[in-house]
């Protein structure tokens, strides 16, 4: 298990590199991945099962200890990201499938990588985990409702079907993970060490499959989609930070809300888009997954270094 743990730690630390590598493989060698379209939802289910294995009662006690802080983060997430997505879809005059894809990823819950970025930036990790957990648990209701409200102008949205798919690929695997952790504590604790490796493999495969299925369309619409994804993510970070500051949150809490706002469960967006709309509608989610890990890592590093510099100045002045 030691070798697996070391490999898992290495892959977790170099996650962004693997995302870029497999996105490139999907683009330049699409035949390697195009036959695995049906794997997208099961792969996401594996990631969500792993999330269930890591959840604890402590994560939910935080909701009751600091309900206002958690509510601010969850409301900010589901208010800011869908709103930005809709504005971008209109302002950039995105084609219908791309517009729906951008809105869909904007309406997804927080991504699991946001907790890592909050930790690296020295933010309030407990708050971030609670915001991410609550946003995920209410996703079956929030995501279909918001997608129907905002994307209905471009395409017909089957809200009930979206609800059922989110329950199947997110809520059910998380619940099974929690049950497995409860019944098999020792085995679950041991398997958690391999989760970064398993989750990374699943996520990069989802990205590679989506990119491979849309290689030709990326050549014609890639720049437009990249522009929408980059603006969506960066504006999400900025407005998430400002939103938290408006409510008087301290710096550590602001970092948590910022990352939970700007980073989405793009794997869910890709799975829902591929199942309900078209492969092209899944591309914004795949691109978002590539980009938000790069931007999130850079932002977390900048915050950590800024804290180090501030600490050095304070120490030197005493």
Key traits:
84% helix; mainly alpha; 0% strand; 318 residues; 16 helices
Mean pLDDT: 87
Alpha-carbon distance between the termini? 47 Å
Q: Give a count of the beta strands, DSSP E runs of length 2 or more.
A: 0
Low-confidence regions: none
The SS-based structural class is mainly alpha
The main pleated sheet reads as: none
- Rg, rounded, reads 19 Å
Helix content: over 70%
Description:
There is one protein chain. The longest helix is centred in the last third of the chain and has 39 residues. By secondary structure, this protein is mainly α. The protein is globular and about 45 Å long. 49% of the residues are buried. The mean pLDDT is 87. It contains 16 helices and no strands.
Topology:
Blueprint (H helix, E strand, L loop, with lengths): L1 H12 L1 H14 L11 H15 L2 H9 L1 H25 L4 H11 L6 H8 L4 H13 L1 H13 L7 H25 L1 H8 L2 H19 L1 H32 L4 H12 L3 H11 L2 H39 L1
Brief account:
With 318 residues, this protein is mainly α. 84% of the residues lie in helices and 0% in strands.
